[in-house]
Specification:
Layout: H1 2-10, E1 17-19, E2 22-25, H2 27-30, H3 39-50, E3 55-58, H4 60-66, E4 75-78, H5 82-88, E5 92-95, E6 101-106, E7 109-115, E8 117-118, E9 138-139, H6 142-147, E10 156-159, E11 164-167, H7 171-176, E12 179-180, H8 186-192, H9 195-207, E13 210-211, H10 213-216, H11 219-222, H12 231-242, H13 247-256, H14 260-263, H15 265-272, H16 274-292, H17 299-320, H18 325-344, H19 351-360, H20 371-376, H21 381-393, H22 399-410, H23 413-419, H24 441-447
Parallel strand pairs: 4-7, 12-13
Antiparallel strand pairs: 1-2, 2-11, 3-4, 3-10, 5-6, 6-7, 8-9, 10-11
Bound molecules: adenosine-5'-triphosphate and magnesium ion.
Magnesium ion (MG) binds at residues 59-60, 73.
Length: 452
């Protein structure tokens, strides 16, 4: 409708024009107004223009606007050097050592502004023995900046001042055809950076775009290259994937392309156990749902879910060998965390929350005396309860337990008193100790237990 109207009003003038290798698409054709750009990003563009530089919104934001989605941030690209950008904006700072970017601040908003970069020519490039690029940090011009980007849909430049889109790789047509297409030769581009294979899966799942055939075809044969990517980078990408709001779709695609081996070795193991798979998929579904409702999500919760069945298995083995339940749970958690560290590199900063979530689980079973009230007052109760509900839903524990806690949380004092089960756990007998005597090993273990 609108397109037809525009066509009538603007007639033949509403056409893309070509300048060198660049197609310049006017507002009348693409329809993305500068009103869709955040105020801070617009100010950055206007400031740089006024100072005589080029400045564009780039990457995911332009793509998302064309797809009618809400961009999560607005990154800028310019021909000004970081020092020049810095001089234009008083409230800005240069960040990064390898490739310097400028953060320009307007109120609460920070706009990441980077200088056009180029892909280093093959003979000068530093690569590892598999051809992975180790450096990608030379300044370049706009055309070179477009060529180093991954997908044509990610290589569009929007000028908020003129409202024109600059397109070097037919990204506009690809977006209109709902296709994600790698710029250049996909084989070369995956070799340069194998993470692009995961980006292909994540972006196509998240955006509902189909992968162009030539972009998808080499992935199966090249997936081993993911093994050479530094763990920290893989973890970053995995987090983006799990937190994309489309984690279920991403994991399904990863499995279909057999890419989950390199990425999530643990996922492989877990997905083979019937209860484990159900539980992990429910946890991913739950995260997707929360993200769509704009509720908070923590990676620690998801990691805890991914590893829960491993912990359960290790816990069972230890109890079978005669270890006391809670001491066995502590040992099982450490064992699983240590084992995955070598494969997944989940940072230690998540350990504390994961452990808390796991340790609170057996406490839900205790429904006598003061224990449920003490559990309710735990700061992590809510997350642990959400975790319990997933366990119920997956069939690992009886759904009745979840229902009980659902009611107990919001019940009146009288109702709570009626709900409490008879206290079956025998009271600990106090033994007289000689003053100054060391605690026995068993008693020492008890002191560290979360179950009173
Ligand atoms: P998202 O919406 O998830 O942020 P995005 O496309 O914006 O998606 P970013 O990681 O924010 O992803 O990257 C910004 C831009 O940088 C991309 O749009 C793309 O142009 C470029 N880019 C990112 N990663 C790569 C890569 N591995 N190889 C080439 N270009 C990349
Ligand atoms: Mg982005």
């Amino acid at each position: 409708m609108i397109k037809k109207l525009l066509k009538r009003v603007f007639g033949r003038t509403a056409r893309a024009r070509v300048e060198g290798k660049c197609h310049i698409i006017p507002f009348e054709v693409h329809g993305v107004s500068r009103d869709g750009i955040s105020p801070a990003a617009r100010k950055v563009a206007e400031g740089l223009h006024a100072a005589g530089y080029k400045a564009f919104v780039v990457g995911g934001a332009v793509r998302d606007l064309l797809l009618g989605r809400h961009p999560k941030d607005f990154d800028m690209a310019t021909n000004a050097t970081p020092e020049e950008v810095r001089r234009v904006f008083r409230r800005s700072r240069i960040i990064g050592r390898r490739f310097r970017l400028v953060h320009v601040m307007f109120g609460e908003e920070v706009v990441e502004t980077s200088t056009f970069r180029r892909l280093i020519e093959a003979e000068d490039a530093q690569t590892d023995e598999h051809g992975r690029l180790l450096r990608d940090n030379e300044f370049g011009d706009q055309e070179q900046d477009a060529a180093r980007r991954d997908f044509s849909a990610n290589a569009l430049y929007y000028d908020p001042v003129s409202q024109e889109i600059h397109d070097y790789h037919d990204g506009y047509a690809d977006i209109r055809a709902n296709t994600l297409r790698m710029i250049g030769d996909p084989l070369v581009r995956y070799r340069e950076d194998p993470v692009r294979m995961l980006r292909a899966v994540r972006l196509s799942a998240k955006l509902g775009m189909k992968l162009d055939a030539a972009t998808a075809a080499p992935i199966a044969g090249m997936k081993e290259l993911l093994g050479n990517v530094p763990q920290a980078r893989l973890l970053d990408e995995m987090l983006k994937l799990l937190m994309s709001g489309h984690a279920v779709e991403c994991v399904k695609k990863l499995r279909a392309m057999e890419l989950h081996h390199g990425l999530l070795p643990m996922l492989d193991v877990i997905l083979e156990q019937p209860l484990g798979e159900k539980f992990v998929m429910l946890a991913l579904q739950n995260t997707d749902q929360r993200i769509s409702e704009e509720k908070s999500v923590t990676p620690a919760f998801l990691f805890a879910a991914l590893l829960w069945h491993e912990v359960l298995a290790a816990w069972k083995v230890r109890q079978g060998a005669g270890e006391r339940p809670v001491a066995a749970l502590h040992a099982a958690m450490d064992e699983v965390l240590e084992r995955q560290r070598a494969q997944l590199a989940i940072p230690r900063r998540y350990d504390a929350i994961m452990k808390e979530l796991w340790l609170l689980q057996p406490r839900f079973e205790q429904r006598g005396g003061q224990r449920p009230l003490r559990l309710l007052s735990q700061p992590r109760f809510r997350a642990a309860y959400d975790f319990l509900l997933l366990r119920c839903e997956s069939g690992e524990v009886d759904g009745e337990l979840g229902l009980w806690w659902d009611e107990f949380q919001d019940a009146t004092d009288e109702r709570r008193a009626a709900m409490l089960l008879p206290d079956e756990v025998p009271k600990k007998r106090r033994r007289r100790k000689k003053p100054g005597a060391k605690p026995e090993p068993e008693a020492a273990a008890q002191m560290a237990l979360p179950i009173e």
